[in-house]
Input
Amino acid sequence: MPIFKSEIGQQFDPQNIREAFKKNSKPAVSTHINLEVLKSVDLSGIDLSESVIRKTNFNSAKFDRSVLNQIYFNSCDLMGASFENAVITHARFTNCNFFHANFKNAVLDACIFDKCDLRGANFEGARIHATTFWWSDLKGIRLKDTSLRNIIGDMKQIKSMTWDNYSVVYTHNMLQIDSERHSIEDWWKFDDSEIIRMLGFDGLAWWKKWKDLIRQTIELSPAEPV
Output
């Protein structure tokens, strides 16, 4: 039977992998693991922090409500995996397949998605901060009520920049400045009092300085529809 081998040399029956993660004081590292072992595994509500996981099949696995701090996934298949309400911080995902993965209402802070397939992934209601999507495919992603603050987008579906310490992120129809997210058209209609309410008096001065350039940038280089 395939085994799960941890960094400290312990071995676990793959059917008890959930208990292995829960009981280990030092998270497991899948350096030697059968690619089918963790398919559809339920790891909901578990702290997986500081794990390093490579070349593993997590197809349709559940990470709902789990904590993934300083975790590293390399070349893993996470197609259809669910991270709903998970807290994912300082995590790195390299060459991973997240096709139609579910990040609904998740918190992603200071994460890196490097060369990942995120097509059709659901980020509805997620709070994404200081996260990078280098060379990742975001076609068809769902971003309803998603907060995108201080992120680096793929520069196709999500475009991003920083001007005078204000984060500016836009999609084909939404524009977020720092924590304020509204439709692009609404931003052009806001009066001074509304800008002050959202960004403060300093924000109003910033908006008057950069508004025309932001509008021109979006018009000349619109984001691709998701």
User: Anything to note?
Assistant: The radius of gyration is 20 Å.
